[in-house]
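ok so I'm stuck.
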Amino acid sequence: MGDTSKDIMKQEETKPIEERFQEQEMTAKIAELESGTEYTVGGITEIEDEVVSTICATAAREVDGVANVGTSSFRRTLAETFGGSEKKARGVTVEQGRKEVIADLTIQVIYGFSIPQIVIEVRRKVGARLLEMAGLIAKDININVTGLEFPDRMPGRVE
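replied:
not stuck anymore, here's the structure
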């Protein structure tokens, strides 16, 4: 007819110990999930420097008064052409550990904005984005202002 409990026990005993352990472990995890309590999974997460650099560059571009992140267009084009930098993360280099990061940003600002205020806001924005998106604490955010952009010469401006 069907398997009796003795037959099931014999089948369990014939399984390798590793399989029985995995089944018991999975049964416990499934029960934990179904109970509705908080469920945590261990492991190591590694975030590449390029991703951290992109987060920094994007956050810096969100600040009013920042014209560009990176060097002048001619030098930037040469660097991108010859593999010196990536487009999304250009103008940013990072050194990171497991929990902290040091970022070096190169920016250009729009003429008429206060550079000290822009620098403070860039540091604030980059630090917040790194913490919320990557869980990294900004130890230092070094900013190199390399140029001014004049509003009447900026591309895409229509008057």
